[in-house]
Protein: Phenylacetic acid degradation protein PaaN
Amino acid sequence: MTDRHLYDKHADTLVRALAAISERGYWSAYPESPSPRIYGEKAAAEGATAFQAYLDNRFPLDQPGTDGWIATEASPFGVELAVTYPHAEAGALVAAATAAMPAWRDAGPQVRAGVCLEILARLHAHVFELANAVQFTSGQAFVMAFQAGGAHALDRALEALAYAYAEMTRHPGEAEWEKPAGSKASAEPLRLLKRFHVVPRGIGLVVGCNTFPTWNSYPGLFASLVTGNPVIVKPHPRAVLPLAITVRYAREVLAEAGFDPNLVLLAPEAPGEALASTLAVRPEVKIIDYTGSTAFGEWLEENARQAVVYTEKAGVNTIVVDSTDDFAGMCRNIGFSLTLYSGQMCTTPQNVLVPAGGIGTDQGHKSFDEVAAGIAASVGKLTGDPARAVELTGAIVNDGVLDRLDEVKSIGEPVLDSRVVEHPAYEGAIVRTPAIVKLPADAEATYGKEWFGPISFVIATDSTAESLEIFRSTAGTRGAITASVYSTDDKVLDDAEAAALDVGVHLSCNLTGGVFVNQSAAFSDFHASGANPAANAALTDGAYVASRFRIVQSRRHTTS
Amino acid sequence: MTDRHLYDKHADTLVRALAAISERGYWSAYPESPSPRIYGEKAAAEGATAFQAYLDNRFPLDQPGTDGWIATEASPFGVELAVTYPHAEAGALVAAATAAMPAWRDAGPQVRAGVCLEILARLHAHVFELANAVQFTSGQAFVMAFQAGGAHALDRALEALAYAYAEMTRHPGEAEWEKPAGSKASAEPLRLLKRFHVVPRGIGLVVGCNTFPTWNSYPGLFASLVTGNPVIVKPHPRAVLPLAITVRYAREVLAEAGFDPNLVLLAPEAPGEALASTLAVRPEVKIIDYTGSTAFGEWLEENARQAVVYTEKAGVNTIVVDSTDDFAGMCRNIGFSLTLYSGQMCTTPQNVLVPAGGIGTDQGHKSFDEVAAGIAASVGKLTGDPARAVELTGAIVNDGVLDRLDEVKSIGEPVLDSRVVEHPAYEGAIVRTPAIVKLPADAEATYGKEWFGPISFVIATDSTAESLEIFRSTAGTRGAITASVYSTDDKVLDDAEAAALDVGVHLSCNLTGGVFVNQSAAFSDFHASGANPAANAALTDGAYVASRFRIVQSRRHTTS
Structure:
């Protein structure tokens, strides 16, 4: 069964994805709207039913070395999950993955790409099931979970797969080398036949996060897998289900295709087990993809020396407000960015830098306080009606966010207080609206670090020039995934772009419509740059995939 | 002057190089024969004269921060060099390089590629001067110095430059993104114009080696430079001149093209200064390319945590002899490989594994001792006449090699003793012929580590299967740059290839003619794999270049 039929089946998708990554225009392979007109009338209900069937049950995963069943999740929506997952020791997982590798390596890039594309298709066929799992573990509202956790995650997976495929196939599998006859050393041409093998690095370890269990895990998972590496998926203890579902269908497709399903393994950890640390320093683990806290990311970089380590960590995202020709649009856009998923995105803006003397707008001069109030009013409008609010904010992912919301009450001058919202559908859901706090420019000790969650600061600066200096300083020191600027002055936009280049942060300019700074589109936007402390890699570019395999050649003489 | 005219001038070369790296067949941009029919009647004499003019003189390099002039070289040919080089503190070099970076970054990939190609052309115009410098610092014989130190080094530089250029330009500089109108969020299409900037990582540090000062340094130097990074070149204290000449002409071209010449800086070190260690941990240094001892390579990987570190270290190269249909050709080929540059190549075979019971050949059965004697006789023939010998062996690069030649006398059973050869032209030259020693298979404590220099072991194994096990073990533990196998049995060749894949070592099969295991051809052969402990990168592939820069994007709305 290790033939090319799955490659042939999905070749059109791959070809289109390869074009998309080189054009970087708009493209998506997996429709982001959960509309029944696209997915059919039954899809949503079937997905919900499939999700429900997992609850209060053993997750259907037949993995080697299972030594117990564990449940560690607690839904931000207050829903009782009680899914138990098969636990195994690191040694058993590593042994199973190692044994699975050679046949997968020898299958070659095309066969592997075909199987991985089939896994993506299978996951897409279960996208509603996946969306429910993401919603109830991460706290995202349903539509966002469907998009970020389903369709967009699959798009990012396909993007990474396309880069990896391009990298593996940029050289031919074989080449004839013929050196013309020289004057001395050889009277006849020298001929060699050379074979170039793509060989995997070893085991890939993917360490998932709580907020975006699929979106942040899929690129590394599929980039490592398609390049020949078995992958052990270590989910966040509070967001296991989305990756368990992923591993389930990956194993199903691998087995159908004639490969060892242990090429993809779930590694749920018992409370306090620190399984990620144990796995990360195993000599067989050669690639690690991690999203989460700076502390553990730095620990991995420091200690997992045998592996290539890709990390996405904390950052301080910034908006520089200089002037605007659409004050209402600006406030609406920023307000939406702060509200979406209660600011629990690595791309959510935190620091809004506004000149203390105010700004010029299409509505005339606006004072610093008026700008802060405009943004606050926009958030207020989006969150005024509980039923509408919760579809935007979702729920709070964990107590750390609540703790920070408490802490920020004693800091600065509030522009907007965080409110408790009762969720109309889930009475146990923990819902909070964004808090906005005014700070002076010299409060860098406060705003210079990440306050993950629905917390942002409107900071009064001397001037836009000082705003840009603060942006350089915080992004340079703490890193950033996103930055944006509002100005009607091309010089300011150019200065902001120069600052963004210097500190290596992607910049959005004058977003006032339906594009938000915290959203990045697969195949077009690079997510993170790898050029500042917030991440050491980007989704997705050549650097993200090229070190996941090596080329080993053999050569022999030919006569012709 | 920061226009595209140098790009246009060299575009054909770049296009051809880009084709070559994707085809991996034979191609070379710089003729390897120093024949006057190719380079003209005067080239050799002019090169020698230019080289002579450097001796006993201050090297013409006008660099910032010069605080003294130092001479650290001692020629293996016994020639008095006495070239003094401008010394500067790490801080001065880093400051100058940092200041040079922004304009170089902003010039973009095409302009940078044009300038770098012009540097290569300038170096090629001075290739005889370069060859003399490589000869008299490394101890290579002239023709080898011309080839490996001149033409082939330039080919490898161009190869790295082509990979880097391809990587920088695989995405467009700008793209329009238009998302079709959705049902809810947007009634109209969303349009953004996105700009993708290639941004350098920081300063590149190239740490050169004694034996191949140019060949091993050029790929990293040009890969870092063309991707926008200033480069500080720290030569080996005993092989400064080839890189000083390189830096001289690079600075000349940069200045002519309107750029800050401090984009390329020479950092010669005073005795005991350990300047490489100081530079390597500077926060501004973001890329390091190193060739040399395993100890310092591992120190760099361990300590230069702020940088991407590419290292080529020690390894144990192996030949597995199973059988042959050309016994004479095999012995001739292996003998040549051991003799070339007195075995002072990172690609020279060290361990020749032969079944104790002998092998089948076109000359009938040959005993283990006959195989060893056949190889020894081949070396003896190549080194019998001093005048011919020295043109192959060159001279011994340093006392470490002599010490090992002494040490090996007390080990195993000699098959061939190393001899002292008087150099007909340079009476101070230190010339030694190869030593070959017989060892049993259980002497892994001896043959399991690198004996850099003209030292090899013929090791008696139980069988070819055991030979392959020993190959797996030594290459897996200590690493290897090359491996080769001789067999008339396709099954053995396949087994050897499987072993080579498992331990990540490039394999040559049945080399009996004019191709040698220690030679790799730019644009076709990968040098090192990055898949075993001998090196963490290959020359050259996507992984070698992709992490030398990042992409930073900016996006703004467009209306159309």
Notes: The two ends of chain B are 35 Å apart (CA to CA). Residues 78 and 262 of chain B are 34 Å apart (CA to CA). Chain B has two domains: 31-174+190-313+538-556, 318-509. Chain B is about 40% helix and 20% strand.
